[in-house]
């Protein structure tokens, strides 16, 4: 199995959205490096377990649970990603939720499976932006967050999140220049191979979410597009 440092492409499935068995099979067998199960609204334990069991039934692709609420937490995933929203105006979304979860689950936690992500949410219209009471940082702010993710918090992942809209490649490029050890994840609005290639030029890993549900044929082509990048 590839380590996270070798990943290039991830599909993110939202447990609150419907996906047919046929489409799920195509996503799992696409050659993507991993599937993240995660979303902002209406993430329930039932929804998470349903996706996990359907993926596990016939596929070996690594499965990640990106934890958005404690109620939907379950064992059985290969990895757990825990977002810390760096540009939230509330400490709660940066530290307190995570602190509470660690206090409660510390005995069950296998640290090699858990990755904290320094999130920077850059689309004001994204549900996650409103939900986490974030502010819109400028380019220098984002670069400073990237610096902090790597040099202050030593986080394994810095996630540039444009969820729902395609972001600025130039900003992603400049952020990449700030990072050496911390991996750069980019997600938001990738709908076709050209966009996937453009963002993969700078990001270590690209994440494709919504287009799975709007145009799966094009979404599937994003995997091949970044293979040799
Ligand atoms: C969402 O970054 C991911 O958390 C992917 O974004 O849904 O816009 O592809 P999209």
Automatic annotation (TrEMBL):
Leading EC class: transferase
Cofactor(s) annotated in UniProt: Mg(2+)
GO biological process, one term: glycerophospholipid biosynthetic process
Catalytic activity: sn-glycerol 1-phosphate + all-trans-heptaprenyl diphosphate = 3-heptaprenyl-sn-glycero-1-phosphate + diphosphate
Pfam families: PcrB (PF01884)
Function: Prenyltransferase that catalyzes in vivo the transfer of the heptaprenyl moiety of heptaprenyl pyrophosphate (HepPP; 35 carbon atoms) to the C3 hydroxyl of sn-glycerol-1-phosphate (G1P), producing heptaprenylglyceryl phosphate (HepGP). This reaction is an ether-bond-formation step in the biosynthesis of archaea-type G1P-based membrane lipids found in Bacillales.
Subunit description: Homodimer.
Family designation: Belongs to the GGGP/HepGP synthase family. Group I subfamily.
Name used for this protein in its record: Heptaprenylglyceryl phosphate synthase
Species of provenance: Oceanobacillus profundus
Gene behind the chain: pcrB
């Amino acid at each position: 199995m590839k380590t996270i440092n070798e990943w290039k492409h991830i599909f993110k499935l939202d447990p609150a959205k419907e996906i047919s068995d046929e489409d799920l099979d195509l996503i799992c067998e696409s050659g993507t490096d991993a599937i993240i199960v995660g979303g902002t609204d209406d993430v329930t334990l039932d929804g998470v377990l349903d996706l996990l069991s359907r993926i596990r039934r016939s596929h070996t692709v690594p499965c990640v649970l990106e934890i958005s609420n404690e109620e939907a937490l379950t064992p059985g995933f290969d990895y757990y990603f825990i977002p810390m929203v760096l540009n939230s105006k509330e400490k709660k979304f940066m530290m307190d939720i995570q602190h509470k979860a660690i206090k409660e689950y510390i005995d069950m936690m296998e640290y090699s499976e858990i990755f904290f992500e320094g999130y920077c949410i850059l689309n004001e219209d994204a549900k996650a932006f409103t939900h986490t009471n974030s502010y819109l940082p400028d380019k220098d702010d984002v670069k400073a967050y990237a610096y902090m993710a790597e040099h202050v918090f030593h986080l394994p992942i810095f996630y540039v999140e444009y969820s729902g809209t395609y972001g600025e490649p130039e900003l992603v490029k400049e952020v990449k220049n700030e990072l050496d050890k911390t991996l750069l994840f980019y997600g938001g609005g990738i709908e076709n191979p050209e966009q996937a290639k453009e963002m993969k030029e700078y990001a270590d890993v690209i994440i494709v979410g919504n287009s799975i549900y709007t145009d799966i044929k094009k979404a599937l082509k994003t995997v091949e597009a970044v293979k040799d990048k």
